[in-house]
Every structure is written in C-alpha cells, then in structure tokens.
C-alpha cells in the first residue's frame, strides 16, 4: 500500500488538510530508509513538515509509482526528447530542456512499457511546484490551487512587464487587439505563456489590468519554413532592415527588424521568470521554477544539501560552469517560507535574500544594491577608467562570502567575478561609502520582510487573479504601510500573526494584513522578521517630525529628529506638524514635501545608472536554444554591453502615483544585427508606441527613462556611510550660486543651445563625477537631477560616447577612447537630458498614471501628461532658475550639516 492524499482543503489561504500515512512505499525505503512513511530514516528530509500535512509520501507531490520495485518502475520515465543522462550528454537540445525545463510542456504524450504519460507528468516528477504542473491540479496545485492560479497570472510568472515593456519601447503595435490604446497604449500584451482573465471587465478594471497575454512569438526556430522564419531567409539581411521604421522612430509592425529585436529580448532577457528554471548553469543562477523557485531554493553553487543518498553531492563539479549532463540541486529537500517554529516543534527557515538574487540581479541589481554592492560590468573602477571620474578609494567583493563561498570555491556570481562587484566606493574622498547597504539590510531584515504574499503571489490569493502590466500594479507594500505618514501613524486592523496569536496589525496599500507587523501593549509597532524571527522596532514618521517624547524601546534614544522635522514637516507654525523647510526670504505657508513626494526620493541614497546599452544579435546555426519554447534556434546574442555605469547620476520625475520620485536610465538601447551573410546592420534606436524617446522632433533624443525604486534607503550620514539625499541634491542654494553662478549660467546656455564645445569639462568632472551627493553644493548637479542634463552623456548616432574626458581605449561599443576622437558636431543623443526647460520630454516612459489628470500641474508643458515622466515647466523653473525659481537660504548640506540660516528654524 502507499500513502494517499485523503484531503487537501484548498481554501483561499492555501491550508492543507489531513494526510493519512499508511504502510511505507518503495520511495520511502529507497530515499529515506524508513520502514514507515514518517521520514524517520537517515535519508531524505520531510519536505512538508507542517502539522496536519506532514509525512506525505513522495508520490503525493511528485507522482510516480510507489509500488514499483525498481527505479524504472517507480519513476516517471522521461519523454524521448529528453532521454537519460547519456542521451543528454550527446544531445544539446535534450540537455537544455532538462536543465531549464523550458519547452517540456510542448512535448506530445508518449508511451513507455505500455503506460502513456504526458509531458506534465514528467514535469511533475521533476518539480511538483512548476506552474505548468500546478495549473493542471497536480503537485502543489492539489492543495494550493488558489496560490497557483494567482501566481500563474503574476508578473513574476509571465514577465509581461519586461516583455511588453520592450515591445512598447520600440513602438510595436499591441499584439492583443482588445488592448490597443489601453492605459495610454502601455497595456501588457506578451507573456512567457499565454494567459487569460475570463472575468476581466474594462469598465471596472484598474489601471494596468488586461484581459489576456499572448505567448511570446519565436521566429528563429530551426526547420521553420513559414514566411516570417529567420532560418535561411534572405529577407533578414542587414540591408533589408533599413526601411523597417516609421519616420518618427517607431518600428513597423511585423517587419524583420521588429522580429529580430524581439528575438534579442527573448535571448537576453527571456529566462527571467517563474515559468522555467532560468539559465540554471552557474553560481548565483541556480534555482527551480514556479512555487519551488522561492519555497525550495538551490544552493549558491547548485550542489545538493539534501540527505537523500541517491543525489550526487558533488555536481556541478565546477559551480561556475555546469557541464552536461550535470544537474543542480536544492539546498535541502524541505520547504522554506516564513521563519517560525511549528506546533510540532519543527523549525521552518525563512526565504533568504540569495533566493531572491537568483532572479533579481538584472537591471539595477536590486538585491545587490540592497546589500550595498554595485555591479561594475566593465571593471572600469579597477582599471582606473571610471567615467566621469575615478573614486578616491574602493573595495571589491573578493572577501564577501555572500557571493563567493571559500568552501564552495566559486570564483564567479552570475557570471561575474569579484572585480566586477564593488562593496565600497568613495568618490569625494571623505572616507564614507557612497554605495552603502540599505538600512533595512543593516538591521538584519530580508526581502521578504517587506514583500509578502500579495507582492510575491501576484495579488490577493483566492481573488480574481488579474493580469497586470507593470511592477507597480502588482506591489502593495509601501513605506507608509509600516512607518505611517507625516500626519498619521501607520493604521492597524485586527489580525493574526504566523503563530496564530490575535492582535493589531499593520496593513499594506490594498488593506492586506501584515502578519509580521503588529502593535503591542506599549503602543509601539514592531516587525517580526519573516527571515529570522527577530523583533525590530518600527519608528513612525510622525514621531520623527513631531517631538512627542517617544524613545526607541530597543535601541534607546529619541526618535524625533530636527532635520527630519525640517525636511518633512509642514510650514504652518503648528508644533503638531513639525518645523517644515522654512526659508528666510521665500515664504511657503502650508507647504510640506510629503504632500507630493515619494519617500525614496530623498531616502534612496544611490542607484546604479547605466548609460548606453548595446545589444547585438547574430545569425548562428550552433547550439542556441529558445528561452520561450526550448527549440534549437538560429539566433544568438553577440554582444550585450554597457557603455557607462555610475552610482552618482539620478534624475527626478513624476511617477505613476503623481508623486515626485527618483528616475533612472531605462532601455537606452542601441540595437544591431549580424546577418546570415556576416554583414552587420546599421545601429537602430526606437521611439515608443507614443512616438517618444528617439523621435526626430527632439533636438537630442534621450531614449528611455523610468521611475526606479532604489533599494538603498538611508536615514542619516554616519562615519562610515553616506546618508540620504539632503536639500542640496535637488535645490540650488545661495552659497552654491554665489560660488558657481557664473559657471552655471555658461553651463545652462551650452546645454540649452547644444553648444557642447563650450562646456567646462574639467569642472563637470569634479561637479558630477566626484560629487556623489552634491557635497560641492553645485548648481550643475541640481541641473542634472532636475532632468535638464549634465552634458556628460553625449552619444553619436551609432551609440558611441562623445566627450573629451574618457581615455579608455577599450570603451564600448567600438573599443575606442572617446577623448581621442571627440567631435561635438557628431552629438546625436543626450541621454540624461530627458526634458527641456519648457517641460517638453525627450525621453520615453511606459508607466501610466494611476489616475488620469493627477499630474497635470507637475508635468505642465508635456504632451503626455497622463504618463509618468520628467518634471514639468513650473517645477523645472523652481529648481533650476536662479532668477525666477527657488534658491534656498536655509538648508542641510550633503553631509547632513546645517547650512545658511537653517539654525534659525531648527536650533544650533
């Protein structure tokens, strides 16, 4: 007899019911060594030790035949396209699909020894948490169907934000006719697999919701004879791509250029989702798919930590470069979730940040930034080639065991070595780290302490399972959820923590109870870490602004800060609203920064800005495989190069909430293709679906910029680390204008007129490149932050940088030193000048406002006011015009020191 699933429950909370353990199976005997189904043997761990659902037999999750007396009879046999390890060792397509699981669901049914199997049966055997399995009511989907349905439609599973964002960015028509024109024509249309929301109703939909996604199309499959197929098709020659764009820069739909760019997206970015196991081939990238990508993480080097005696503990032999037919393995054959002790005494581990880093290390390298680590892809810092200026000092991650485990011996993380990951950079020579870790990380918190069920499961589990278009549509946590606002403490509602104790809990923006954040009898709010279980005091923003005598009950000392009261208070003369950013000569009654400003605008201390991304694909008949279908294809990535990366630059803009937020470079892509005849195409850039970004109507296009939630939150400057963005980061001051006013006027005129030869490049190298928080109190820095440009990121029409400072002979894309060929007449793009002084945007943005019309006054002068985007004319004048705007006479400088007359308001 075998263990059977007698009840699964399957309620909205995903609770399992009672599972009956009967006489043991051959699975238990072989993999655990126990004579009963209780995991009492020395072998494999109980994967699901939760009371009422522990001691499950293997077949409940994995399928197979628990009565089989041999491995062949007990296991689900592989499809013939996969075969055994010997077959995978000689068949690259088989190995790719076994390693990544990408195309297994595409295989037809097959019969072995008279038994017919589906591809999903085999997927279940390999991974019961794969979403294709759970969506079929198998594996985890038997008991956790509501979770499965929600996650399958989520952005984490569909990658719709990335795929559809790329399609929008090149101006391609929405692939779903019903979604064309929706949400300022930014609606998602493409996913890794097609999904449908049958209950979608446009009349009640919130911004970003769509009714369906189509599967990402593939044109590069081998042996595809359709008219649009790439293989052996001379229509895809370099010369034939020249007429594939409209005059405004948008790609013409369904042309060869359109198809090739999307092939590039699929190859470069197409494995970053929960649908498959990703690349799964090197340290830092090893992971599972679906539910188990998070709930059963792999080790850093992919080697098994399970007690199963039949799992190879030494593969992959080289953790940095897996070799066929090796397979990576889980750390332990046990679910991780929220750290806690179960009623049966079992300790459950929390999901750690390394689990998140397996996916979230693209773009801004979010987890790396949270840890205080910056990617320097080109090793510019180590090579003394950092642009615009080298740091005074730096330190690599050579001894950082989070990335490089001395026991494992891996030399790389995500394909990069310690020289490309920097843990300390000091650009202004004050001895402080300009790229510090997030304060929440320093406090011992992990990603899951903020991002809970709603964010990670695609919305409300058991709800409608809506399909969303962009990240902000699927994230409910906010700073205010825990810290409250300037005017009110964080609200609480009745709820239950993870051990079943009732209490008053904080809620996210959707009203979901934060089970790990609760108000206790002393009146304070505390967070119990989902990662470690440790208790953290949660200071309230209002208490930092209003001196109510509150002290930190754990760390000691007052919560109130005069600097916080000045920055976030309201100018109304009432002690109940704080001090507010008062000025001697510029009265602003009733004003508070917190009315229309995102918290991270000031508190995010740095971001890794990428200026100029060169993507090049090529026709290639080798062993290249589709990240969508698993098929062998005739396209591969030739280059994916960053030109510049810097932690200093950032801009302000108006985000989807109609609030001022930090913006950063996004999709500033130059694309080219090497065709079947080995001819390289011209370099292409694109305007988006609304004809922004590379439009010829812009004097110097800026391509794409978007709001970026930098995970580098800081509260104050310390002896070791720089702090938040203080007043001088975004505002001119009387001191700054007095010191640099003449230079500033010349600079503004040069940028406005495109007279780049008139720029004082040496001055800018100091005022931008060696001035991470505007320690120099420079108006040029403020001009850059406002989005009006720094003059430092000029590019020619082929995407090569133009400046007289950069002497790097290996500078991408042409391996030529820009300083040696400097010619300002060739400037075609000004990549950080995202708007002109009249509020006319030069950059693309793909985030619609949560409510149309909510940012009209903040984006005045723009033609796309219902999209997020650069600041408008009025705000630009306020921040950057010394004659008619606001020049502070009272401020805090970049080191948190009092400047001007601020002591008149906050005291000495």
Q: How large, in whole angstroms, is the Cα Rg?
A: 28 Å
Residue fraction in strands: 5-15%
Terminal Cα separation, in Å?
Answer: 80 Å
Mean pLDDT equals 95
Largest beta-sheet details: 5 strands, antiparallel
What does this structure look like?
The structure is a single chain. With about 900 residues, the protein is of the alpha+beta class. About 20% of the residues lie in helices and about 15% in strands. It has 27 helices and 30 strands. It has a five-stranded antiparallel β-sheet with strand order 11-12-13-14-15, with no helix packed on it. Helix 10 packs antiparallel against helix 12. The chain starts with about 25 loop residues before the first helix and ends with a helix. Mean pLDDT is about 95; it is low at about 1-20.
């Amino acid at each position: 007899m075998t263990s059977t699933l007698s009840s699964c429950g399957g309620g909205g909370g995903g609770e399992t019911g009672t599972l009956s353990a009967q006489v043991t199976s051959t699975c238990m005997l072989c993999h655990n060594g126990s004579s009963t189904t209780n995991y009492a043997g020395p072998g494999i761990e109980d994967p699901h030790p939760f009371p009422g659902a522990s001691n499950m037999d293997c077949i409940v999750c994995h399928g197979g035949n628990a009565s089989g007396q041999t491995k062949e009879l007990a296991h689900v046999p592989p499809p013939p396209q996969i075969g055994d390890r010997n077959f995978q060792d000689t068949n690259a397509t088989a190995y790719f699909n076994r390693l990544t699981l990408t195309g297994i669901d595409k295989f037809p049914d097959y019969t072995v020894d008279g038994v017919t199997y589906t591809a999903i049966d085999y997927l279940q055997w390999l991974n019961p948490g794969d979403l294709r399995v759970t969506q079929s009511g198998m594996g985890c989907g038997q008991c956790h169907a509501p979770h499965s349905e929600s996650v399958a439609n989520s952005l984490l599973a569909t990658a719709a934000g990335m795929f559809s964002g790329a399609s929008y960015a090149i101006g391609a028509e929405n692939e779903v006719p019903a979604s064309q024109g929706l949400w300022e024509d930014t609606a998602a249309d493409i996913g890794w697999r097609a999904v449908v929301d049958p209950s979608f109703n446009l009349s009640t939909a919130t911004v970003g919701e769509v009714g369906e996604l189509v599967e990402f199309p593939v044109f590069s499959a081998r042996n595809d004879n359709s008219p649009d197929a790439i293989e052996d098709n001379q229509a895809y020659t370099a010369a034939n791509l020249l007429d594939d764009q409209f005059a405004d820069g948008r790609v013409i739909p369904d042309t060869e250029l359109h198809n090739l760019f999307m092939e590039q997206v699929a190859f470069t970015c197409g494995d970053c989702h929960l649908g498959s196991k990703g690349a799964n081939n090197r340290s830092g990238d090893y992971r599972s798919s679906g539910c188990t990508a998070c709930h059963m993480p792999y080790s850093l080097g992919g080697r098994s930590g399970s007690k199963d005696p039949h799992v190879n503990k030494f593969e992959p032999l080289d953790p940095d470069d897996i070799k066929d037919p090796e397979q990576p393995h889980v750390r332990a054959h046990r679910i991780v979730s929220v750290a806690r002790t179960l009623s049966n005494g079992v300790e459950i581990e929390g999901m750690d940040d390394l689990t998140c880093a397996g996916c979230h290390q693209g773009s801004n390298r979010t987890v790396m930034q949270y840890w205080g680590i910056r990617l320097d892809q080109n090793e510019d810092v180590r090579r003394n080639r950092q642009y615009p200026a080298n740091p005074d000092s730096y330190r690599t991650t050579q001894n950082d065991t989070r990335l490089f485990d001395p026991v494992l011996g891996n030399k790389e993380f995500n394909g990069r070595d310690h020289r490309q990951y920097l843990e300390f950079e000091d650009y202004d020579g004050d001895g402080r780290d300009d790229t510090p870790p997030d304060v929440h990380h320093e406090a011992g918190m992990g990603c899951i302490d903020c991002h809970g069920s709603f964010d990670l499961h695609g919305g409300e589990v058991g709800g409608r399972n809506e399909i969303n278009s962009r990240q902000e549509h699927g994230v409910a946590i906010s700073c205010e959820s825990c810290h409250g606002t300037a005017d009110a403490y964080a609200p609480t509602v009745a709820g239950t923590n993870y051990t079943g104790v009732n209490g008053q809990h904080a809620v996210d923006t959707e009203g979901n109870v934060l089970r790990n954040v609760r108000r206790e009898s002393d009146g304070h709010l505390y967070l119990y870490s989902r990662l470690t279980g440790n208790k953290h005091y949660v200071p309230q923003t209002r208490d930092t602004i209003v001196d109510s005598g509150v002290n930190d009950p754990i760390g000691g000392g007052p919560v109130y800060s005069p600097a916080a009261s000045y920055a976030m208070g309201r100018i109304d003369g009432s002690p109940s609203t704080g001090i507010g950013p008062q000025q001697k000569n510029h009265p602003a009654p009733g004003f508070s920064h917190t009315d229309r400003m995102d918290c991270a605008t000031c508190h995010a201390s740095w971001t890794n800005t990428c200026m100029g991304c060169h993507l090049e694909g090529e026709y290639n008949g080798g062993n290249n495989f589709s990240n969508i279908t698993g098929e062998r294809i005739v396209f591969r990535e030739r280059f994916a190069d960053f030109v510049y990366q810097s932690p200093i630059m950032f801009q302000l803009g108006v985000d989807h909430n109609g609030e001022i937020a930090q913006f950063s470079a996004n999709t500033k892509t130059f694309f080219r293709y090497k065709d079947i005849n080995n001819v390289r195409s011209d370099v292409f850039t694109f305007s988006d679906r609304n004809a922004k970004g590379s439009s010829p109507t812009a004097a110097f296009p800026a391509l794409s910029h978007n709001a970026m939630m930098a995970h580098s939150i800081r509260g104050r400057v310390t002896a070791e680390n720089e702090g938040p963005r203080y007043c001088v980061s975004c505002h001119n001051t009387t001191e700054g204008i007095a010191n640099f006013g003449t230079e500033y006027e010349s600079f503004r005129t040069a940028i406005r007129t495109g007279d780049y030869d008139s720029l004082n490049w040496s001055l800018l190298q100091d005022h931008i490149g060696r001035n991470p928080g505007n320690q120099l109190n420079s108006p040029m820095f403020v001009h850059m932050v406002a989005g009006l440009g720094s003059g430092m990121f000029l590019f020619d029409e082929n995407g090569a940088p133009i400046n007289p400072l950069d002497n790097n002979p290996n500078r991408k894309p042409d391996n030529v030193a820009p300083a040696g060929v400097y010619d300002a007449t060739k400037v075609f793009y000004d990549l950080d000048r995202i708007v002109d002084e009249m509020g006319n945007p030069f950059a693309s943005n793909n985030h619609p406002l949560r409510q149309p019309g909510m940012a009209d006054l903040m984006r005045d002068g723009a033609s796309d006011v219902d999209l997020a985007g650069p600041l408008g004319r009025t705000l630009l004048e306020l921040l950057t015009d010394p004659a008619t705007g606001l020049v502070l006479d009272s401020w805090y400088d970049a080191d948190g020191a009092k400047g001007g007359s601020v002591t008149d308001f906050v005291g000495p």
